[in-house]
Specification:
The model has no long low-confidence stretch (mean pLDDT about 95). It is built from 9 helices and 10 strands. The chain has a 6-stranded mixed β-sheet with strand order 1-2-10-7-8-9. A 4-stranded parallel β-sheet has the order 5-4-3-6. Helix 1 crosses helix 5 (about 140-150), helix 2 runs parallel beside helix 3 and helix 5 (about 140-150) crosses helix 6 (about 170-180). It is α/β, with parallel strands linked by helices and about 290 residues long. It binds pyridoxal-5'-phosphate.
């Protein structure tokens, strides 16, 4: 349905990268303007399961700026299946760009209170939507992780010593851990503040041992989810000037800025060859946050 040939592996040499460390970016952001990056991989087996179970409708969850909502709306339009986005909070007088686009692609938007949203996973949605296949928020389930196991087959290069990716729910990271070579090291840069629960959630999506060594890096959330500082904006601009690669403020900007910091602190030994996963998310920049 989507053309993986759009995805490229781009070697980068920004001014801050020492000569003895090599780095390349896997440009999943080039897959599709809205079904960008990792969200497609998390959705694909969920869509298949919906079709296999005879479901005519996808129901999923997210906030007003959710890349997952944007990707689900676009993917369901491509797949020709109806969808509902259950959105956290009362309907605002002016919809975000993300929600306007989702609605334009045919997604029904159902706004629920923050209280109701908190118990969404315990809610029986089948009474309201008997035909719906429910995809959890962020595509965070075993089928989501399974889809992400395909990401590294686009690279197929075991000479990378480190594989580095931004972490929201950790579903993507779980897929990378499950599919990497055992001598590779996987590092997940967490964009949420105080997300100590993530280790265990990721663990629950992992294949049986042996697995490659992996760790979560909690130091680079930059003040918390979707928080922007002038330093981050400046870094993203400079990175774009030096590499031509656009980043987003929520995930990939923090990933690469955190990576730069860790490189400067010597956390990547000389001789490292680092694969940075660009998970997309550029549609969120249109919300101008
Ligand atoms: C959703 C998202 C992530 C986080 O993926 P998880 O599987 O939830 O950890 C990372 N990057 C971008 C651009 C995203 O939109």
């Amino acid at each position: 349905m989507l053309d993986y040939n759009n995805i490229i592996l781009q070697t980068i040499s920004p001014s801050w990268l020492p000569d003895n460390i090599r780095a390349a970016v896997l440009r999943l952001d080039l897959l599709h303007p809205e079904v960008s990056g990792n969200k497609w991989f998390k959705l694909r087996y969920n869509l298949e399961a919906a079709f296999a179970n005879g479901k005519k409708h996808i129901l999923t969850f997210g906030g007003a700026y959710s890349n997952h909502i944007a990707a689900t709306a676009a993917a369901c339009q491509l797949a020709g299946i109806a969808c509902t986005g259950v959105i956290r909070g009362e309907r605002p007088s002016v919809l975000s760009h993300t929600l306007r686009e989702a609605s334009a692609k045919g997604m029904e938007l159902l706004f629920i209170s923050r209280e109701a949203y908190r118990i969404k996973n315990e809610t029986d949605w089948s009474t309201l939507y008997p035909d719906a296949y429910v995809v959890p928020e962020g595509g965070n389930n075993a089928l989501g992780a399974k889809g992400c196991e395909e990401i590294l087959s686009l690279v197929n290069d075991p000479s990378f010593t480190h594989i580095v990716c931004a972490v929201g729910t950790g579903t993507t990271l779980a897929g990378l851990i499950n599919s990497a070579d055992h001598q590779q090291e996987i590092r997940g840069y967490v964009v949420l503040k105080g997300a100590a629960y993530l280790e265990q959630e990721i663990q629950s999506l992992l294949a049986p041992a042996p697995l490659p060594h992996w760790q979560l890096v909690h130091q680079h959330h930059g003040g918390g989810y979707a928080k922007v500082t002038p330093a981050l904006s400046g870094f993203m601009r400079q990175f774009y000037d030096e590499t031509g690669i656009p980043l987003d403020i929520v995930y990939t900007g923090k990933l690469i800025m955190g990576f730069r910091q860790d490189v400067s602190e010597g956390l990547y030994p000389p001789g490292s060859k680092v694969l940075l996963i660009h998970t997309g998310g550029l549609q969120g920049n249109d919300d101008g946050r």
